[in-house]
Specification:
The protein contains 16 helices and 34 strands. The protein is α+β, with helices and mostly antiparallel strands. The strands form nine sheets. An eight-stranded parallel β-barrel has the order 15-16-21-22-23-24-25-26. Strands 1, 2, 3, 4, 5, 8 and 9 form a seven-stranded antiparallel sheet that branches. It has a six-stranded antiparallel sheet with strand order 27-28-29-34-31-32. A hairpin with a 2-residue loop joins β2 and β3.
Length: about 700
């Protein structure tokens, strides 16, 4: 290493000047607390850490080349603790890509996989090089690029919308607009999604949950089945946690990676729509013992992953490995990652895939008070960010209603999905659970419990859903009795078998008008109950116009018409879209569905279940017909807010009696999923029929009534 005399030169100001030379580059010890690679006015700061590695080299590549043009070993004096840090002067971030090599002991039975020949991707990389075009197989190693973050967010405030006020719309960035029917100029990209914002506004959703957008390699397990190329389409195989998936950009963003994603987020925010990221901190794309070594395994395999006593990988994720989330080093990385996306991309919330893994100890056992979950819950930068847990994992840990989140976390309410699916198709033994679920799952989340800060657990702790990316679409839920995953190449053995679906009399596609009428009524029933349940509703993109996956309930590998939204169905099923649109607007109009209000002046209790006669509030154990009432005083409108929801899941009609309420309250029919014979399934305020006393619910029908004083 050449040592500089320290003489001032115009190129390098006195405050930050070279102290030596490595491989022909002026260098000096770097900024050790600045993780990853950061552009500076004089060059680039590189910082990386390894606990058990014994040596580190920085590799510089020219764009597109597989061999480095420079190798810069870190001197020992450029190391503090476990952190190597070096400023390399004169580097132009537009001319190079970088990676590392780590030397150290190789002892697989102890979890040590160091190999000085492995080219390793920076775990803190803000952009991943090596591939961009969707579906192309990566050539050579993963490498990183240094980004230039000059995006101006202006004075855009952070959203203060409560969880209970969200209507979440889950979508896949590529699949949302890839189909030729989407009509966008940039199909399958962030830009294509941005083009659809007017549609989202018309529908009325105010939050989009994006399936994984962190850098992943869709071609990592590419295979061919019946002439069709199958990819890791969903994206649940993270390569780099700090980098956006470059293939979702409509054009190359060399050193400006993430710009199009930021433009999308800003445009969504400008239109009142929050952005939630689906994040995967339970495993990585490095897989098990047979998987590649391209990043975490090469830096500190036995720190980043949960290992068995013989050095193999625990597999609580079902994907080969399990991230060791409660190791302090991994905790720190996850916390820094979420802070980064919150600050640099202004993300409003995170949904954590298989979140129960985040609460496992380093030996795989569940923890009572997982430090990672507490740190995320109380971090100052994340204090107003939504945290949503998929409160189970592939290792059998199921924590719905019991996720250790310090009352800061919301949960995907898996029980709501299972119970309502069953009850709607006629599983009468689910009646009590269905009633609990519609009322906010108070038996799981506390119902009207107030923690002293106006935080009602029953409203902010559960995300209610009937469909998501994993499973049937809402149309398929009533078109198929069983899954049809043959196209995935596993002889239909993959995917869930417990779907609680019903084909309404005929499996799959049909022209039978009676079967189709019943299917769409069942979809309207599901929609009406979801939007009239306490908690935060979420549904899958395309459900609002009857999108189908042709019975495939595990489309993780299907980059095809099976997974892409067919926008032609929007016009074909316009009635259904208008119904969803009305139900979302109805929910927004009635605060009493979303939150606890002061007691109603008319004397109705805030929340109740009702038998056929509304005066009877105790439900028979196996009833196929019941009602739920919500009541409160809306101070903004200066009137009572009264909603009465009735469900008949029987194949025969049922007669119900509406509540008798003080103060000359009359009941008006707003939603009638059976239809009035003239194509009306809902009635806006001012046009709804007035209902006196009794009301006949036809078979398999939901009706929603609004109470108003005359």
């Amino acid at each position: 290493m050449k040592v500089y005399s320290g003489i001032y030169t115009p190129e390098f100001p006195l405050s930050i000047r070279p102290m030596g030379e490595i491989a022909g580059f002026p260098v000096r010890p770097g900024m050790f607390e600045m993780v990853g690679a950061t552009a500076l006015p004089v060059g680039v700061n590189f910082s990386i850490h390894t606990r058990y590695g014994t040596g580190c080299e920085l590799l510089l590549f020219r764009k597109g080349e597989t061999e480095p043009y420079a190798v810069l070993p870190f001197p020992e004096e450029y190391k503090i603790g476990d952190v190597y840090s070096m400023i390399v002067f004169g580097l132009n971030i537009e001319t190079f890509e970088y990676a590392y090599r780590i030397d150290g002991p190789s002892c697989p039975e102890q979890g040590l996989l160091f190999d000085k020949n492995n080219i390793l991707l920076d775990p803190y990389a803000k952009a991943v090089a090596g591939k961009r075009a969707w579906g192309d197989r990566k050539e050579g190693s993963y490498r990183a690029r240094v980004t230039n973050d000059i995006f101006d967010w202006g004075d855009m405030p952070q959203s203060t919308r409560n969880m209970c006020d969200l209507v979440i719309y889950e979508l896949h960035v590529r699949g949302f607009t890839k189909h030729g029917s989407s009509g966008v100029k940039h199909p399958g990209t962030f830009k294509g999604l941005e083009e659809k914002i007017p549609y989202l506004k018309e529908l009325g959703v105010n939050a989009v949950e994006l399936m994984p957008v962190f850098a992943f390699d869709e071609a990592i397990n590419a295979r061919e089945v019946d002439g069709r190329k199958l990819l890791e389409y969903w994206g649940y195989n993270t390569v780099a946690f700090f980098a956006p998936n470059a293939a979702y950009a409509s054009s190359e963003e060399y050193n400006r990676e993430g710009t199009e994603l930021k433009e999308l987020i800003k445009a969504l925010h400008d239109n009142g729509i929050e952005v939630i990221f689906d994040v995967v901190f339970n495993h990585t794309a490095e897989g098990n013992e047979k998987g590649p070594v391209f990043s975490f395994k090469g830096f500190d395999n036995n720190i980043y992953y949960m290992l068995t006593p013989d050095g193999n990988y625990y597999n609580f994720s079902g994907c080969g490995n399990t991230l060791n989330c409660n190791n302090p080093i991994v905790q720190q990385m996850i916390l820094e990652c979420l802070r980064y996306w919150t600050v640099t991309y202004r993300v409003d919330g995170f949904r954590f895939d298989l979140a129960s893994i985040l609460g496992r100890n380093e030996d795989g056992s569940p923890m009572d008070k997982p430090p990672l979950l507490r740190n995320l819950a109380f971090d100052p930068l994340l204090s107003r960010v939504k945290l949503i847990a998929e409160a189970w994992d592939a290792g059998g840990l199921y924590q719905v209603g019991n996720f250790p989140g310090s009352k800061r976390w919301a949960e995907w309410n898996g029980r709501y999905r299972d119970v309502l699916r069953g009850y709607l198709k006629g599983d009468r033994w689910e009646s009590w659970n269905a009633a609990w679920s519609i009322c906010g799952s108070g038996d799981l989340y506390g119902g009207f419990y107030d923690d002293g800060n106006d935080n009602y657990a029953g409203y902010n702790s559960c995300v209610n859903f009937l469909t998501c990316h994993d499973g049937f679409t809402l149309y398929d839920l009533y078109a198929y009795n069983v899954k049809h995953n043959e196209a995935n190449g596993w002889n239909n053995t993959d995917g869930h078998d417990d779907n609680r679906s019903w084909n309404c009399g005929q499996e799959g596609e049909t022209d039978d008008p009676e079967v189709l009428a019943l299917r769409f009524r069942m979809i309207r029933n599901a929609c009406a109950l979801l939007l009239c349940s306490h908690g935060t509703p979420m549904f899958l993109a395309g459900d609002e116009f009857g999108n189908t996956q042709y019975g495939n309930n595990n489309c993780y590998c299907q980059d095809s018409e099976i997974s892409w939204l067919d926008w032609g169905l929007l016009e074909k099923n316009r009635e259904l879209f208008e119904f969803f649109k009305f139900m979302i607007a109805y929910r927004k109009e009635h605060r009493v569905i979303r939150e606890k209000l002061p007691n109603a002046l008319c004397g109705m209790e805030p929340l109740h279940t009702h038998d056929l006669n509304a005066e009877r509030v105790n439900l028979p154990r196996d009833t196929m017909t019941f009602s739920v009432s919500f009541a409160g005083y809306d101070k903004e409108k200066e009137r009572d807010d009264l909603v009465f929801v009735s469900i008949n899941t029987h194949w025969e009609e049922a007669r119900i009696t509406l509540p008798k309420v003080q103060g000359r309250v009359m009941w008006y029919l707003n939603v009638f999923t059976y239809g009035d014979g003239d194509g009306n399934y809902f009635y806006p305020e001012g046009r709804e029929p007035l209902i006196h006393g009794d009301f006949v619910l036809p078979p398999r029908t939901v009706a929603v009534f609004t109470g108003r004083a005359k």
